[in-house]
Recover the amino acids of this structure.
């Protein structure tokens, strides 16, 4: 079991109650309201979800069945209902008076911004959707989206949804090889990309990486590469395959009849890291997924018509799906879509942008908060106190545990002690928030994600699936299916079952992959970190096995083991122990080879997977049966003394060698 680096715990005693002014206007106001919703779900689970699905979504054909458990764990929700996700996110807003409301404030890397109304977004999406149709792309086809943050990126997702194509967004920081693997696994028919992306003043390639991915081979299903012109940088164009987005949409109609799909129709596949093997294509539904994306906007973010909402995630991650592309539009919100990075032109960028657009709800990752705390310690000019942040009324975090110090800084320095903080625990697989304070109800404790949302039957069990008492740590599970849950792993239903509904736990509980503990008195949940071989670096999930496979694919490498190491800024960092085929390098040679291997991993997976540290050994610590003892490597990575029993170790002398960075 790995543990996280933060020192939050169920023993934290500070409690912050939501400000009265906030409670007075909140969607879920007070704990009685929260408890009433929980009681409603407990009394009639299907009735509860049925009511919410009718109230929050527009159905072209109403559903009559709520939950189908016949083929558990392949649950079905609202299965005979028909809807279209893009209709719910766009057309609905044109009909209810939001046509001229700003949907997106696009804040570009260079500080320029443009507003796009719901009417304009609708038009963009319809033209895009008609363009896709003109290329023969249809319902059920898979489309890869490899783009940076842009209005076009959101429009690409919505356009796929409009015609019933299943999108798979690949984060723009992934390598050609990662992109190729995803194209092949998804069997995609098209890639939507941009010429280049702009980040921190730099022009970085996107189209060139798509070319490289396709040249790696095996991508014969791809017929079209659609290119959005972002920078106008030089790119290669392959006749007959590549086409400009602006040319594709130029003569398209601004109306596109939505493709009505079953609630279970796959809206998207999003690849995420697991403990073993290649990344898993997490498949989400249309109806259940959208219900939760919309509803959590109202419950967790208390979204109101006048809010300016900003989620700093990238559309390449699930947070950018549920809380940029779909949730905010489904509730008719105005949101900032940000192209840049938090430190450009300086580390005051977030605060400056909040002031500029009068952001009222701000949602970011603990890793960003920690790096901005550091930056403002070094340079007082970028401290939030220098900016007018009075527009803020609610703050949120996601992606990893937040340590109480960072929470307190966020609360006092950014939120001016008047904004509730929602520490939202959830995963790619859960589709939306699972455990989080409700901002107008739940008393907050720094470092705790507090209580499950109404209808989410989260619990903590032991390895046999038996509930553990509060105060005792265990495995986080969800005991009942919920509408926005993962439906399957694309192409791999067996892996879906064994990863998330293991027989050891009876085959019916959803296994989150995280450890957790509940406070003895309050029952509040605190996430203690992944219990599998998944690392969380800056809120990005990385499988240790994936990085190990990348390392051993290098001709110089004989063997590699990767572990997480606590890191003040990124939460965890990647530490790799490597055995080369040649003699163990030292000094300058070790430095040179470490750099080479880091760049190799960037090429194989993407820069986010680069090990921060590489240590070379003649061997790795193994049991006599040949198993690498990762728990010892974790201790070594931390620089701590090994106190565990090493008697089962075949080669104890190796520990000395691996103690320090080469
Ligand atoms: C949304 C997202 C999921 C993993 C999850 C857990 C960690 C996310 C958290 C949190 C503590 C929070 N995680 N939110 N840990 N507190 N509020 O991040 O999805 O990329 O799939 O990562 O992130 O370990 O299992 P994803």
């Amino acid at each position: 079991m790995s543990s996280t680096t933060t020192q939050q715990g169920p023993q934290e005693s500070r409690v912050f109650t939501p400000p009265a002014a906030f409670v007075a206007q909140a969607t879920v106001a007070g704990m009685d309201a929260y408890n009433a919703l929980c009681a409603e779900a407990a009394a009639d689970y299907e009735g509860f979800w049925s009511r919410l699905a009718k109230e929050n979504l527009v159905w072209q054909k109403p559903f009559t069945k709520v939950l189908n458990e016949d083929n558990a764990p392949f649950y079905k929700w609202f299965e005979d209902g028909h809807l279209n996700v893009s209709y719910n996110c766009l057309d609905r807003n044109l009909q209810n008076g939001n046509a001229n409301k700003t949907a997106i404030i696009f804040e570009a890397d260079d500080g320029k911004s443009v507003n796009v109304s719901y009417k304009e977004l609708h038009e963009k999406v319809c033209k895009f959707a008609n363009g896709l149709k003109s290329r023969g792309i249809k319902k059920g086809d898979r489309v890869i989206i490899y783009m940076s943050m842009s209005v076009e990126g959101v429009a690409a997702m919505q356009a796929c949804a409009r015609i019933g194509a299943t999108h798979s967004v690949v984060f723009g920081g992934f390598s050609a090889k990662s992109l190729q693997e995803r194209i092949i696994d998804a069997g995609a028919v098209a890639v939507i990309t941009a010429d280049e992306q702009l980040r921190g003043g730099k022009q970085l390639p996107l189209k060139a990486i798509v070319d490289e991915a396709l040249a790696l081979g095996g991508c014969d299903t791809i017929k079209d590469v659609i290119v959005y012109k972002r920078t106008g940088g030089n790119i290669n164009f392959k006749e007959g395959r590549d086409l400009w987005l602006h040319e594709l949409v130029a003569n398209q109609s601004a109306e596109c009849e939505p493709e009505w799909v079953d609630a279970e129709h796959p809206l998207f596949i999003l690849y995420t890291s697991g403990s073993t093997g290649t990344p898993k294509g997490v498949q989400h539904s249309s109806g259940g997924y959208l219900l939760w994306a919309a509803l959590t906007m109202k419950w967790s973010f208390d979204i109101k018509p006048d809010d300016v909402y900003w989620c700093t995630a990238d559309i390449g991650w699930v947070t950018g799906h549920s809380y940029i592309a779909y949730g905010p539009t489904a509730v008719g919100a105005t949101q900032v879509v940000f192209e840049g990075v938090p430190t450009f032109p300086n580390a005051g960028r977030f605060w400056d942008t909040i002031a500029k657009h009068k952001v009222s709800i701000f949602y970011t990752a603990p890793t960003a908060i920690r790096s901005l705390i550091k930056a403002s310690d070094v340079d007082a000019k970028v401290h939030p106190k220098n900016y007018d942040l009075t527009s803020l009324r609610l703050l949120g975090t996601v992606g990893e545990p937040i340590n109480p110090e960072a929470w307190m800084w966020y609360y006092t320095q950014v939120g001016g002690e008047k904004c509730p903080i929602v520490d939202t625990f959830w995963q790619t697989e859960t589709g939306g928030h699972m455990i989080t304070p409700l901002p107008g109800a739940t008393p907050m404790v720094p470092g705790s994600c507090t209580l499950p949302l109404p209808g989410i039957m989260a619990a903590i069990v032991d390895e046999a699936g038996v509930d553990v008492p509060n105060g005792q740590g265990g495995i986080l599970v969800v005991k009942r299916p919920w509408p926005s849950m993962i439906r399957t792993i694309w192409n791999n239903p067996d892996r879906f079952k064994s990863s998330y509904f293991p027989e050891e736990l009876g085959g019916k509980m959803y296994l989150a992959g995280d450890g957790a503990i509940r406070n003895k008195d309050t029952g509040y949940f605190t996430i203690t970190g992944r219990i599998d071989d998944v690392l969380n670096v800056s809120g990005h999930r990385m499988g240790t096995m994936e990085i190990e496979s990348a390392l051993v694919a290098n001709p110089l490498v004989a063997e590699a083991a990767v572990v997480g190491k606590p890191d003040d800024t990124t939460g965890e960092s990647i530490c790799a122990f490597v055995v080369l085929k040649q003699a163990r390098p030292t000094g300058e040679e070790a430095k040179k080879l470490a750099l080479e291997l880091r760049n190799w991993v960037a090429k194989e997976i993407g820069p986010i997977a680069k090990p921060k540290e590489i240590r070379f050994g003649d061997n790795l610590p193994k049991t006599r049966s040949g198993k690498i003892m990762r728990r010892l490597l974790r201790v070594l990575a931390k620089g701590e003394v090994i106190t565990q029993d090493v008697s089962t170790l075949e080669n104890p002398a190796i520990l000395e060698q691996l103690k320090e960075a080469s």
